[in-house]
Amino acid sequence: MILGKMKILIACEYSGTVRRAFAANGHTVTSCDLLPSDDDSKDHYQGDVFDLLNNNKYDLMIAHPPCTHLAVSGAAWFKAKRESGVQQEALAFVQRLMDADIPKICIENPVSIISSQIRKPEQIIQPYQFGHLEQKKTCLWLKNLPNLADTNNVYDEMMTLPKKDREKMHYLPPSPDRWKLRSKTYQGIADAMANQWGAE
Question: What is the pLDDT of residues 44-56, one digit of tens each?
Answer without folding.
Answer: 999 999 999 999 9
